[in-house]
Write a structure and sequence with these properties.
- By secondary structure, this protein is α/β, with parallel strands linked by helices.
- It folds into 2 domains: 6-249, NAD(P)-binding Rossmann-like Domain (Rossmann fold), CATH 3.40.50; 253-460, N-(1-d-carboxylethyl)-l-norvaline Dehydrogenase, domain 2.
- The chain contains 22 helices and 12 strands.
- The strands form 3 sheets. The chain has a 5-stranded parallel beta sheet, sandwiched between helices.
- Helix 10 (253-277) crosses helix 17, helix 16 (348-356) packs parallel to helix 20 and helix 19 (406-413) crosses helix 21.
- The chain starts with 5 loop residues before the first strand and ends with a helix.
Length: 462
């Protein structure tokens, strides 16, 4: 980290005005992304964008933010670095213990938006019920509907959230109809790399800012992107958001697919290989020449082709540059978590597309084999790690007894249709390719298996 870091002063806007946004999922990503967008709007004088931040799991964070009246510092690290004080979160609540206050916040007359960043695995009836309870209170109070924007890595995330809310409200048809008529659920794509706060970051916050910044400090990269569908309860919000750099478009899917496939898909591949090889951060992976070349082939030969984002090649090249940022120190074990929820979004579409073209994708086969090997919970040096996944018990109950048997491993894990999709899970050529890739990992190790694939690829294209 740079030793001399600029500190951007706190915004001078009125933070006592009632909030206009309720956000569910008060994690690091929201605080480095949407909250900083709303901070820009507040600093420009539009005071409708203050946030009621709702913690879903981490009461320690909620309490820390309360101690500092919602203020927290963000270290934006690139060629130059700067601390940014963010005060957009003007109130914090805990969903598990203050659900009544969450309902009241959603139903407040000043509330215009409800946003979410709760991760893929949290799109459950429980979350939808919390939203619907607030919307029911709004309807009862004769208030207008809301713009309800999902900011999670799900395809058609707004449509998914709307469907979930309507399912929960089925027992009250009047509320369900009111949601359809008065609320808007735009699809969106959000992009910014936000690592978990490290001990080094906390130490830097102490040196640069003082003790009051340690518990809430987070860091991120300079790049950010928010692409959202032009589908708002208040149509004038489109122009407001454009003024601070948000892309408002008719169709989010090209951007959504590119981000899920190229950024998130590459991140997952980096994570499983790195955990096995002992590379602890993303930049450590790309510092390995063979790994960086392998990743580039994965992105340009298998993850990218078929995307309809016009500039996907430029986007892919920008990602390779972003991955090299050593200041982020993005932990690969963190990225590897929740794999059973991520692979269907990140890899399965590209695998299906390549199989429909008649050829198993070899780079994705090696990445898929790395995931299966990762489920053993031990790296290639013998060090153990914890597999964090909502299905970890079920998946490890398959992987561990099959250890050493590539065919049994792949035939069991590779046929899980909920992860790989109906086509790949039944495609014998694909399963054969993954089996061979698994054997290569077991025989040669991560780096040598990658090198072997690159050599074979070069010979086949000679």
């Amino acid at each position: 980290m740079n030793s001399a870091v600029q500190v951007i002063p706190r915004g001078a806007y009125d933070r006592h005005r009632a909030a206009g946004v309720v956000h569910l999922g008060l994690g690091a990503f929201h605080r480095c992304h949407q909250a900083m967008v709303f901070e820009a709007l507040l600093s420009a004088g539009d005071l409708r964008w203050g946030i009621v931040g709702v913690g879903m799991r981490n009461d320690a964070l909620v309490n820390a933010l309360r101690q500092h009246e919602g203020w927290y510092p963000v270290l934006v690290e690139g060629d130059t670095s700067a601390w940014h004080w963010v005060g957009a979160v003007t109130q914090t609540l805990m969903a598990s213990t203050e659900s009544g206050q969450v309902t009241a916040a959603i139903a407040a007359p000043t509330t215009r938006w409800l946003t979410l960043s709760v991760t893929e695995k949290a799109y459950t009836p429980h979350v939808a019920a919390l939203i619907v309870e607030g919307l029911t209170a709004r309807r009862a109070g004769g208030l207008p509907g809301l713009t309800i924007a999902s900011c999670d890595n799900l395809r058609d995330n707004g449509d998914c959230l709307k469907s979930l809310c309507l399912q929960v409200s089925l027992l009250n048809p009047a509320v369900s109809q009111w949601i359809v008529e008065h609320c808007r659920f735009p699809n969106s794509m959000v992009d910014r790399i936000v690592p978990a706060a490290s001990a080094a970051l906390k130490a830097k916050a102490l040196i640069d800012l003082g003790t009051h910044a340690i518990d809430t400090a987070i860091s991120t990269e300079p790049f950010w992107e928010w692409v959202i569908q032009d589908h708002f309860q208040d149509p004038s919000d489109a122009q407001v958001l454009r003024q601070v750099g948000v892309q408002v478009v008719a169709d989010v899917r090209p951007f959504e697919d590119a981000k899920l496939g190229l950024l998130n898909g590459a991140h997952s591949a980096i994570a499983y290989f790195s955990v096995l090889a002992g590379w602890q951060t993303v930049d450590a992976f790309v510092q390995q020449p063979v790994a960086c070349e392998w990743l580039e082939r994965l992105m340009f030969q298998e993850l990218g082709p078929g995307l309809i984002r016009p500039d996907w090649k430029a986007y892919a090249n920008s990602l390779l540059t972003r991955f090299k940022n050593p200041a982020l120190a993005h932990k690969t074990l963190q990225i590897a978590g929740d794999s059973s929820q991520k692979i269907p979004q990140r890899w399965a579409p590209a695998i299906g597309l390549r199989l429909a073209e008649g050829a198993p994708p070899r780079y994705l086969a090696l990445a898929s084999a790395a995931w299966m090997r990762y489920l053993l919970g031990v790296d290639e040096h013998g060090a153990q790690f914890t597999v964090q996944d909502p299905l970890s018990q079920q998946l490890q109950a398959i992987a561990i007894p099959a250890r050493g048997d590539a065919n049994k491993t792949v035939q069991s894990l590779g046929r899980i249709a909920s992860i790989w999709g109906p086509l790949a899970s039944q495609d014998e050529a694909w399963l054969k390719a993954v089996t061979q890739a698994y054997r290569d990992l077991e025989t040669y190790g991560v780096a040598a298996a990658m090198q072997r694939m690159l050599v074979i690829d070069a010979v086949s294209h000679a």
